Amino acid sequence: MSITRRNLVAGLGLAGAAAPLAAPAIAAETIEWKMVTSWPRNLPGPGVTAQKLADLITALSGGRLTVKLYAAGELVPALEVFDAVSNGTAQMAHTAPLFWAGKFPAAPVFTAAPFGLTPLEHITWISKGGGQQLWDELYAPLGVKPFMASNTGYQMGGWYKRPVASVEDFKGLKIRMPGLGGQVVGKLGAAPVNLPPGEIITSLQTGVIDATEFLGPFSDSAMGFQQAAKNYYYPGFHEPNGTGEALVSIKALEALPADLQEAVARACEWVNLWSLTDAEWENARALERLQAEEGVILREYPQDVLTAARIATTEVMAELAETDALTGRIVESYTAAARHLGKWSDVSVKAFLAARGQPAG
Q1: pLDDT in tens, 68-89
Q2: Per-residue pLDDT, 361
């Protein structure tokens, strides 16, 4: 079934709240927005999600608001999309908060924190636990409004040219790992590198880096990392969640009539959910294929690595909280959400998965 204003609103249970979306447009002016992204065009996972978002906003608006997508490098470089929205070069972007640590030290928390919230827990913190209000406050000084608009789910630990036998093997390791996870492996002795997605495979093949993380098996295999490294590690302790974001110019958003503002918000909400289900399904398929057909060796991180990483995470989060008052409030909110939701997750998800894994009979 194709997505229309009518069936999307009905499916989301928003018939009352979003009734203006169903009203016919009469002599309405057509508005065109530019969307810049941090992804190669149509990259399985976030690249496809970005295009779905652009198309869905256009569809929900009845064509009154059209969104034209510019992939990484087509209008601005991948890691300059925030500035493009802030300065008016584009009205919106599709990207990930972890790229903006240089502007806002707390921004990576809105993608994930090491050993932190799972995908559902993270969505719950943003929507129910005060995370959205803090996120809005963080970006507002630069005229940008964030929305959850992508989730690639649980991340894998990464691709390594050489096996990791112990924490000692992280010493001097050049690994592409942005965000808070990069700070954690830095404390283990690694040299974290922040590269835009389009530059990772070449850097791995040429030895600029020794290892890389990105997302999960679906997007990772599309990037071709299995061609340069065969050791695929789990769990992805550095990013147990993969929230991406739509960045929208506050000025451009507020210039829209109310029903089109609602169309933007609801489109982000829908693609956020769709992308998570897509990632779960396709990651399972891709992992099986990588092992069966591409010679990839699935390896679990040694216990001493996970123990050292947990200790380093405590230090990184404590240091982050001391950065400034707003960052401290964000870290406290995230940590409080982890405590609150973790109690329920232990007796629901964790206990159930343990029971499901036991042999029958």
Answers
A1: 999 999 999 999 999 999 999 9
A2: 59
Domains and CATH numbers, the chain: 5-22+29-152+240-280 (3.40.190.170)
Sheet strands side by side (includes 211-212): 191-193, 174-176, 211-212, 158-160, 231-234, 297-300
Average pLDDT taken over every residue of the chain: 93
Number of residues in the chain = 361
CB 47 within 8 A of CB 40: yes
Q: Is the pLDDT of residue 1 over 90?
A: no
Cα separation, 138 vs 105, in Å, equals 10
Tell me the CA distances in angstroms from 222 to 194, 272, 309, one per residue in order. Answer: 20, 20, 28
Please choose, from the candidates 246, 252, 264, the residue with its C-alpha nearest in 3D space to the C-alpha of residue 94. 246
Contact 124, 139 (CB under 8 A): no
How large is the C-alpha radius of gyration of the chain? 21
In angstroms, the CA 131 to CA 123 distance is 9
Please give the structure tokens belonging to residue 239. 């990013």
pTM of structure? 0.90
Contacts of 197 (CB under 8 A, 6+ apart): 38, 39, 40, 43, 72, 78, 214, 223
Three-state DSSP at 247 gives strand
pLDDT-derived band at 358, boundaries 50, 70, 90: confident
What is the rounded CA–CA span in Å between residue 67 and residue 212?
32
Would you say residue 15 has pLDDT above 50? no
Band the pLDDT of 64: cuts 50, 70, 90.
very high
> In angstroms, how far is CA 358 from the centroid of its own chain?
32
